[in-house]
């Protein structure tokens, strides 16, 4: 009973209210499916491949962890804690995947691609923490959350939705169940750099998605569903590589008014790594200032005893910034894309409004 004593209201919410709500949602999906011929359970032959994909994803993560490091699990592993955690995670998994199966089945007659896309996004948003999303004001934290959580969750949701479309909830439960069991039962979890976590979490489910295409889709000459998945896979992989700097550049969201009128909140700039010796007065650079990245223009360059120092200032500011040592420079402006980041800002504001 001592495990339940601290924070009793929170424990009741996690181990009683939430699991029951998810199971009720799953029962509702089953009841609706009972009277809906579009949601039929059929043997797809993909349960074993789904389990194998989950096991491969866990295995690759474990191999990477042996090379790069493990971290302690945040979950309890006393017998009672394991039972309660499995109850919570299992109820969420079953209820969510029954709902996924019914949603994608009910919408597939209009358009399979639309059904998969809408269900994927909806169930993906359910897995994200609204609190974490609203805290992503720092670019480094944003990249970390994107790589460790958001993109892998999106890729897993896409694969799970397609599995549910092919054969029903057992297939998606099989794939996600392997990942869930590893996360909640292992006393050690991979502590990987976010680019590595992103690559594994995105690449494995997307490759699995391409491998489980049914024969009729794989043989379609054009407009087949396999083409949609191939495009989605390529786009997601490019997004991950682009954000990790594999292409030698990195996107930065402009926030604030310090660089107006040339740059406005919601613009996206592409920053390329640069040798500080190659910088000159007038260049716009990104540099680290405490816990934040700043994008300002160089107005003076000094050679001091400790090395090269840059004096910067925002175009809309009245005074220069504190001196910037060369080692704090992260890159030089390479490309400016006006308004490209506004959808993300609006989405964040929407989530914040809903949470409040």
Automatic annotation (TrEMBL):
Family annotation (CDD domains): S26_SPase_I (cd06530)
Organism superkingdom: Bacteria
Entry annotated with the keyword Transmembrane helix: yes
Single GO term (MF): signal peptidase activity
Alphabetical list of Gene3D superfamilies matching this protein: Umud Fragment, subunit A
Keywords carried by this UniProt record: Membrane, Transmembrane, Transmembrane helix
Gene Ontology terms describing biological process: signal peptide processing
Subcellular location as annotated: Membrane
EC number: 3.4.21.89
Domain Peptidase S26: 228-295
Transmembrane segment boundaries: 15-34, 46-70, 76-94, 114-133, 195-212, 224-242
Entry's Gene Ontology cellular component terms: membrane
Main localisation: membrane
Cross-referenced InterPro entries: LexA/Signal_pep-like_sf, Peptidase_S26, Peptidase_S26B
PANTHER family, per database record: SIGNAL PEPTIDASE COMPLEX CATALYTIC SUBUNIT SEC11
Name this protein carries in UniProt: Signal peptidase I
